[in-house]
What we know:
heterodimer; A: mainly alpha; 2 helices; disordered N terminus; B: alpha/beta; seven-stranded mixed sheet; six-stranded parallel sheet
Amino acid sequence: MTPEEKESASHDPDSPIPPPPGGKPKAPAAGASDPKGKSKSAFRIVPADPKNTIHFEDAADK
Amino acid sequence: MNIALVFPPQGHFTQPYLSLPSLAAYLRAHGAGDVTMIDASIEAYDHFLSGERLRRSLDRIRAGEGLAALESRDGLRFSEMERYQALSEIDLIGDQVAAGIDEAKRVLRNRDEFYDYERYLWAGRTMEQALRIFSAEFAPSRLTAHGFVTRHRIERSNEVIAAITDERENPFLEYFREHTLPRIQAIDPDLIGISLTFPSQAIPTLTLARLIKQWKPEVHITLGGGLLAYVGEKLSKRAEIWDLIDSFVLLEGEKPLLTLCEMVETGGDLEKVGNLIYRDKSGTVRATAKQDPIDIKTIPTPDFDGMPLDKYFSPELVLPLAATRGCYWGKCVFCTLYTVIGPGYRGRTIAQTVEDMRLLSQKHNTKHFYLAIEDLPPNMAKALPRAILDAGLDVNWWCDARLEHDVFTQEVCDDLAASGCKRIAFGYESASPRVLDAMCKGIDPDASMDLVHRVRKAGISVTLYVMVGFPTETREEARATLDAIVANREAIQEVSVRVFYLDETSEVFRRRTEFDIVEIFPDAEADLQVYYDFRCSRGMSRKEAREAYLEFTSALRSHFPVFQNTNMLYHELKSHYFLYLAKWGSWEELRDEVLERPSSNGESHRRPLRRANLQRRDLLFDRGSIDARLSSIDVHTLRPRYQSDLIEDDDRERFDRTLDPEMPSPSAILYNASSGEIHCLSPAAADLLERCDGERTLDEVLALLDAEIRPDAQRCLEDLEKAGLFQPAAVEVSR
């Protein structure tokens, strides 16, 4: 293993962290149309947020 | 003999990795044969991120169920929302991204355009969008700048083996057949070494090995690399693997690979190769004797000759260099690196390190180095800067280091900065002395923060590694860590936070009862499992640790300029942030001149408004709502593979059954072609923007609306301007 390969291991990817025993994932709120928590104004703008924006950990990985 | 060394996808695309050049230098120095290095990762990215390839993706995606079919539904189930998100983006920007991707790569490789921050952001966004389009062809598999994941879990050999023949979801089957295999065939190697460093490379590695074996069964394929220190033995127990691979080199590769080359060439006994797992002629899997770690003072300078150095997506080369191997501290109970690198700590001399820099700098016309080391040892922290300066080297470099408050005096920090050190990443982990003691970190948090301020004062960018969820850590202790970081934010530029994982090769796993771990949860089907979920009798639960992590990331986004908005310097962290630091000379310059440069002048009241170069797509469903609902799955779900950010099939089916469908509600998405950004707007906001036609002032736009909604509309106009969706016109119009 060469030293730069530490990155693979120290911030390890794909870690299996199952749901906690007995814990059931909470359902996302239905119909949330105001994700920034602003007023109920008809005027809304948010940046598009495709789900694969990277996580903080991912950037440090490699 | 012909030797091919392959770095398979997926590694980061901004700079070369060190494994192949280290091995090639050693083999060439010992006359092992003709060595060819193939960085199949950067070559794959270069191909996938091309206009021609993206148009192929678009054709294939559009041949399937399109956006119109989804829009005809009464409501969208969870999995349909996922597709809607992807398809609406592709519908809006697909052709434009395919048309712009080659230019985006050119911007990232061009010294002038790369450092034009607006151009850089556009190029980075275009790359990410292109990767999303490409990934949509193979959904749910996903290739990003930082990873490659498929629905097949790499903790389960059954799934890994299934993945390597999955034509539908494994993008590398087609790519390797069309590109990498022909290259290997042209070399016609006798031995192929594949460097398996990251989990993201596991499926591509075996995919490639299978194709090679189908072409030339007699070629010897050996796997080496960091991941095998964790899963090599487990993988070797799987009989099917031996149809693809002839041997595994565990731990350091130089000596075993050299001996393996000799044995393959002469038909010798593989038992003579150290640290090797192989299958003998009787079919028995054998592990050879342990090989002593190499003295790295005896190895040559890494040899990058033959690497595709012009292909990386950076304007200047940042070359990795290993001045040491292993960790001189070697006590942290969560860490396993000091047990697998080598193992054991070794260093090159200061003179050798300086000479390595000089040689590589001259040969490859670069002054940028990443010292790929565990931590900068005290002797090197003190002596390397002076040696660099005495040698007259004009270099920029960065590395990791321990928070050694006795070592990093102000004088040492100033010397480091003077020698071109632009950035140091420290393992801070926690602000709690109790947690740090339990980790055996050997550092004091207050003294550490004083050290951070000295490094900062010297002008070096500071990165802190932080961990939440160490066994027994309480929520209050995690919050105290966050508070300490935020309180010292003027001295800290970046924070890399992660949730603690229980690694079965770590000290904390072996002595887990001492850390109040009362239960672990093995996955019976995961024969390649390395990390375990666990339960402690005290401290945060895993769910609470995950929540603390999310609290961290949210706070960091609020308080640290590098993490704010969609800062691409952060996204492409591997070397782009470092290059920007080197370009601007100091963090302060970079922050003031680039990251926080004031934007528009706020004179909208007097000046007419005009829209940016925008494309609009009206939708029957609310994309903003869909985005929020999909991202809330992230927040509330602890998935088995949460870090891969991929939802499990059974979770998806459950969400489809149990979540309320998303009902139709019109919205619009807008693409700003000059910045590459996409925004979701309500119909009212989109109509308001339409009225910003370059003729009307803000007051005139508002005057078109009913009085009672003007305050809301004014706020919206401010948001639209902040989002860069219109700017005040440059010339004031006479009234």
